[in-house]
Amino acid sequence: MLRVILIAGAGVALLASVGASVQAAAPETIIQARKAKYREIGKAFKSINDEVKKSAPDRGLIGSSASLIAGNLRQVGSLFPAGSGPSSGVRTKALPTIWTKWPEFARLNAAATGEAGKLVLASRGADVAAIAAQARSLGKACQACHQQFRDED
Amino acid sequence: MPIPPKAGPGPGRIAVWDVPVRIVHWAIVGLIAFSWYSAENHMMDWHRYSGFAILGLLIFRILWGFIGSSTARFSAFVRGPAEIRRYAGTLRKRAPGAGVGHNPVGALSVLALLLVIMVQVGTGLFAVDVDGIESGPLSERVSFDQGRLLAEVHEISFTVLQVLVVLHVFAILFYLLYKRDNLVGPMIVGGRKTGDVARGMTRAPRRNFVIAATVAAVTGWFISQGLHF
């Protein structure tokens, strides 16, 4: 009985803390964390493209970079809570249409995640041309979403 | 021994600009416009090709500034502050210029344009886009952050270039409308009416052109390929 109460109590405390942290997260914090995640993607993609340009690319580095990208893309759903767009007053290139056309945004995100996963698989094979082609497919999937949902300068 | 001018002159005309200078000038005009267009429209493959072409033309033009025809040479038009001040003092005279080739103030514009285009091409070679997808051929030699910084410089220096181009066009309009001196004509056909200048441009030997063009093409090619040997 005591155990049940303890577990329940811990559960309630955990929920409360999650609720508190969500409430406490200012748009600035959310947007900064989001930018950091996308920066990681950009950095990882640069190392993929640097390898692809070489005659003997480091396939291990391509694979780990691609799985980092896939991992970050899977978090995208939670990186864009309602109210973290330009209406928050914080500088962001995230367009308001992300929230008005959420299913389309989620579809493009899932497509890009899939392409990143395919790149992880391709990096396990020795076919450098196939790796390069898959890196390009991933780039196109990223850009498809950016064109629609990211503000240009 | 001075080689008699051939480009553009007829009776009462003298040569001002040789064919390579004119081709480089107008090709760079077209390629800069195309680079702008291709970047705005996310045609990054074309943007790179355009940049490589400008790189080759730039290397050629700099070499031509040492071994080209008389009016192409830096030694013929780069002048010190005293000479620049003296010429600037004559700017208000409503008469075509007396010299053949760049005047001392125009030389500043040439140098500024060459320098900014060099910065433009140089930063483009290393630039990385925000997604790490598009990049210049030398970008693997810099980090993501360095590549992003250079991409920002690339953008700022393009604004500087736009300002210089506008200034350049205004200066030409000033010469045309105020001083009644058409500078565009000679840059197209190569020559102009004698005026009070007796001698025109001294043309460089063909061999010099072959050397400069070969060095520019080979160097430009290797850089565009990421300097892999």
How does this model look, in words?
The complex is a heterodimer of chains A (153) and B (229). Chain A is mostly helical and 153 residues long. Chain A has one domain (27-149): Four Helix Bundle (Hemerythrin (Met), subunit A), CATH 1.20.120.10. In chain A, 78% of the residues lie in helices and 0% in strands. Chain B is mainly alpha-helical. Chain B has a single domain, classed as Transmembrane di-heme cytochromes, Chain C (Fumarate Reductase Cytochrome B subunit, Up-down Bundle). In chain B, 62% of the residues lie in helices and 3% in strands. Chain B has helices at residues 19-40, 44-67, 74-77, 81-89, 104-126, 144-177, 184-189, 206-224, and strands at residues 13-15, 191-193. In chain B, strands 1-2 form a two-stranded antiparallel ribbon. In chain B, helix 2 crosses helix 5 (104-126). The N and C termini of chain B lie far apart (42 Å). The model of chain B is unreliable at 1-9 (pLDDT under 50). The interface between A and B is medium-sized, with 17 and 13 residues.
CATH topology of chain A: Four Helix Bundle (Hemerythrin (Met), subunit A)
Please indicate the count of domains of chain A: 1
Q: Please state the structural category of chain B.
A: mainly alpha
Count of separate structural domains of chain B: 1
Which homologous superfamily in CATH is the superfamily of chain B? Answer: Transmembrane di-heme cytochromes, Chain C
Descriptors:
heterodimer, A: 153 residues, mainly alpha, Four Helix Bundle (Hemerythrin (Met), subunit A), 78% helix, B: 229 residues, Fumarate Reductase Cytochrome B subunit, two-stranded antiparallel ribbon, globular, disordered N terminus
SSE topology sketch:
The complex is a heterodimer of chains A (153) and B (229).
Chain A: H1 2-24, H2 27-53, H3 59-74, H4 76-79, H5 97-100, H6 102-124, H7 128-149
Helix pairs in contact in A: 2-3, 2-7, 3-6, 6-7
Chain B: E1 13-15, H1 19-40, H2 44-67, H3 74-77, H4 81-89, H5 104-126, H6 144-177, H7 184-189, E2 191-193, H8 206-224
Antiparallel strand pairs in B: 1-2
Helix pairs in contact in B: 1-2, 2-5, 2-8, 5-6
